[in-house]
Specification:
- The chain has 9 helices and 11 strands.
- The protein is elongated and about 70 Å long.
- Helix content is 29%, strand content 30%.
- The termini are far apart.
- A hairpin with a 2-residue loop joins strand 8 and strand 9.
- By secondary structure, the chain is α+β, with helices and mostly antiparallel strands.
Length: 269
């Protein structure tokens, strides 16, 4: 029992120093991080009013501290929902390896699921040109919200030539990867490509879908995928920057080089 009491004291809230030059919200943030590491919130994270009472601060101070913790990816504090500890698993993908987001998420120990937001056949001259097709060629388009665990990870839009994508119109993408379904239904396997990756600030609408705050950035990945030298995929993926990272290696001897696929737990395809 003594051990349990000691653990409780270690994880208890500490008074904030109102004479300190450090703002109250920053002190609150630091103490919450200390308590989190001590296991204070293993069962439940306190709500705003609970923190107001425990630390004798204003609700605005609590909200500022929670906003910073949310930006750090430590807690999830969404409107109308009680704050809770975020899943700390970070999906890491080595550069230079053909990959699917589905496989990368699953290899991180999280279940990847998708919510289909739109799926149809349509014409788009700009995308058709990227795929080396005539402007009027029918194209398969699918927009998905990708989840890692139960939390949003990415907003993904993929285009394929209509003849390849048509068999995917009725496919169940709840818990499977696009490349697996494409190979199983058409025999076509994406075996290479190129990507353009840049950091962006999601729009307000994208923030609502991804469940992020205005201070959370994202990676915008544009991919052109090939199958036997034929361009077959154009994809735009907006991935939360607090849940996904990319890796490369460099040294004075070898310079900058891409990470071999077998060095990190992110499966091919």
């Amino acid at each position: 029992m003594a051990g349990k009491g000691t653990a409780h004291r270690v994880a208890a809230a500490r008074p904030l120093d109102r004479a300190s030059p450090l703002p109250l919200w920053a002190q609150l943030r630091a103490d919450l991080l200390r308590r989190l590491d001590a296991g204070a919130f293993d069962e439940e994270f306190p709500g705003e009013m609970g923190l107001v009472a425990a630390y004798q601060v204003s609700r605005q101070t609590v909200r500022t501290a929670l906003r910073e913790l949310r930006a750090d990816g430590v807690v999830l504090a969404e409107r109308g929902r009680r704050p809770r500890i975020a899943d700390r698993a970070l999906i890491t993908q080595p550069l230079g390896a053909l990959y699917s987001l589905f496989a990368s998420v699953e290899s991180a120990g999280l279940r990847q699921t998708s919510i289909i937001r739109a799926r149809d056949l349509r014409a788009d001259g700009v995308i058709a040109d990227r795929l080396g097709l005539e402007a009027s060629t029918p194209l398969f388009r699918m927009e998905r919200l990708r989840l890692a665990g139960d939390e949003p990870l990415a907003l993904d839009t993929v285009w394929l030539p209509g003849d390849l994508g048509a068999p995917l119109l009725e496919a169940d993408f709840t818990h499977t990867g696009l490349y697996d379904e494409l190979a199983a239904r058409t025999g076509v396997r994406v075996d290479g490509g190129r990507e353009h990756i840049r950091g962006v600030v999601p729009t307000a609408a994208e923030q609502r879908v991804l469940g992020t705050s205005p201070s959370t950035g994202a990676l915008l990945i544009s991919r052109l995928g090939f199958a036997a030298d034929r361009p077959v995929e154009w994809r735009r993926s907006l991935i939360r920057g607090d849940r996904f990272s990319l890796l490369a290696e460099f040294s004075a001897r070898t310079g900058y080089r891409l990470v071999p696929n077998d060095r990190y737990p992110a499966p091919v395809r």
